[in-house]
# Entry
Amino acid sequence: MSNQRHGFYKDMPNDDYHASEGISKSGLDKINRSPAHYKYPKKSKSTRNMEIGTAIHAAILEPERFDKEYCVVSCDSRQKKEYKEQAAKFTGEMTLTKPESVNVLGMREAVESNLDAMKLLRLEGDAELSAFATDPETGIQIRARYDWITKDGIVVDVKKTQDLRKFAKSVAEYRYHVQEAFYRHVYRLITGEELKAFYFLAVEEESPHSNELFLLDDLSREIGEHYYRKDLRTYARCVENNYWPHGEFETVLELPNWEVSKYESDLEVFI
# Structure
């Protein structure tokens, strides 16, 4: 355990962070599905959607770096010769077509018109700050990467969404409440203090890119705390026993309600 990292690490490349020892929130999501999904993950590579997500984060949180490092070509397709030539000089993930750049920069412009969001993003702080700590209960190395964190402990986490009106469903589906609780825990272990606030900056992908800052209520945070602890303890047991089960399932199945309703409606026809 003596070689475990502890503290904040500025300017750590994203690939280095993901290759580092320790379980992250995305790892806990896999544990939540089943330990086997964590231990034996499906091999995956970066998708264009993921690359655009990274570009959005850079444009909003590190605009100077985005303007310096990203390349925009005038064509509308990545299959065009012009795009391929530029992508070979830079990298494909940092070369955007014109429509892609319009969308990314449109999201940045929309966020810049959100005075509440910009008030936080203009405070002294760090973008993409990597953090490592050791969970005292389990002895497990844990890690987090803060989108934006101010010097006095306010976090802004950028999330792209389709519809702000449905963002609460996204919080539940993608376990953002677990993320907040986990990130609060990492910060507490490093600093000995509590985060002052944790905001989700949700930005719609489609024009006009409506965006809003959201805070979780106390119950949502309590639920997030419960599940990250549950997942972390499960992970610790799996590590200790080197046993990675596929989860527990009810072996007697029930048909979904819509199929039962269909059956009941058919019965009424013959009565």
Summary: The mean pLDDT is 94. The chain is about 50% helix and 15% strand.
